[in-house]
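Margin note: ligand = flavin mononucleotide.
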Amino acid sequence: MEIGQMKIGSITLDNPTVMAPLAGITNLPFRLLVKEAGCALVCSEMISANGLVYGAKKTHALLNSDPKERPLAVQIFGSDPAIMAEAARIVAQRGADILDINFGCSVRKILKSGSGSALMRNPDTAGAVLKAVRAAITIPLTIKIRTGWDNSGDDAALIARVAQDCGINAIAMHPRTATQGFGGYADWRQIKALKQQLTIPVIGNGDITCAADAQRMMRETGCDAVMVGRAAIGNPLLFEAIIARLAGGSPPAVDLQKHFGLMRRYVADTVAYFGELHACRMLRSRLPWFVKGMRHSSRFRKDATRIETHAQATALIDRFAQLQAVAGL
Ligand SMILES: Cc1cc2nc3c(=O)[nH]c(=O)nc-3n(C[C@H](O)[C@H](O)[C@H](O)COP(=O)(O)O)c2cc1C
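Resulting structure:
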């Protein structure tokens, strides 16, 4: 019953599910995968504004997209208003539907440059960045925040107010502090407080592991959409389950054949995008995500380290799928 379209500025999402940006993971082939599983909005991994403005080839490659994944959000990080504005223009010119700014990353290298969650404790810089970027582009603009630098202040409320006043179209919140990193738990009450404070849409994020969690987050916080990160890495069909649950239906039965079908598609897309050799090296560590917790997964992980060709990767999945089918009898 709770399912419905959601709007971020001029962009309409088919349902209220969003894939979290994950550095090193949410590349184009991965985004196509979750899109196929029903996720309404995918996001690039965080991209350096400096890298875009100074023309770094590898950084620009992160903007590559495919019509099938749209609408696409692209996330940038940085702290210099002029550079962020120029990077935003580049992103918009390359066809992104939404620009997102990273206010949440707590990795030391990012913090040292005043970017990511360092912006949470510097509202003046944050305001200058948001104003400059807002003036530079017409596509919807969003930010992804944490609750603050630490527990001592009211950083999220302050930044959110600044952001809304600057004309930002939605805010995603991962309710942990920067100093907390990924420890403890995500305090969903902070998402509720943010939702009550703002008139723009709020996207809730943090510790969703199953469809029931997503439904509970929406009920408890009133957030407009849910954003899923780690739990979707090896389980793209989680989006399908969340959508069914939010629509009031019973979640579809676990469909392993569909899951393995998506894995094969992921392999094919990764090979097509990165080239066979590079793709196979990446797939050695990525394919095991999809079999975590299943019977014989340690054997799969071991065999995956030897993948050298597309055919070998597919054969490995086929063999494993057969083993699961036999185990399920
Ligand atoms: C490996 C990894 C990479 C991440 N990369 C990014 C990123 O590029 N940009 C960002 O805003 N958040 C990033 N995050 C944070 C996630 O987007 C998300 O906020 C966090 O994982 C909490 O959601 P979850 O509990 O559903 O995983 C990353 C998290 C992980 C685990």
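The domain at 6-246 is CATH 3.20.20.70 (TIM Barrel).
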